[in-house]
């Protein structure tokens, strides 16, 4: 199966601070599946490292107050193109990210508070019928 995966979960250092968030349960899926690493923020044109961002009122702002909604939405559209090209029905995306988070994201105050909602890429993929799960749910998958 072709599975889209947040690149940072596979050990690629594409997070805002130049780090990764490798999760072995996710990496190990490569034994049986074709994992396709994607980073919507980089594909939307943002640099690594970059200022961290959060969603507020449907828009995305960096911690310095710059509106980066356009870049986040461009990245989301590119991820969707990749998902379609590879006929992906499942995406495993990094929880709480303003791009990749599904179901819960930070509230836009940069104080670590979570609210209901999804990141721009996760939201678009789910809207297009692709199943999105976070890394903590990988153990429950029967693939
Ligand atoms: Fe990871 Fe997604 Fe953030 Fe890229 S945009 S660093 S893949 S959580």
From TrEMBL:
According to its UniProt record, what is one Pfam family this protein matches? 2-thiour_desulf
> Would you tell me the protein name for this molecule?
Purine-nucleoside phosphorylase
Organism of derivation: Anaeromicropila herbilytica
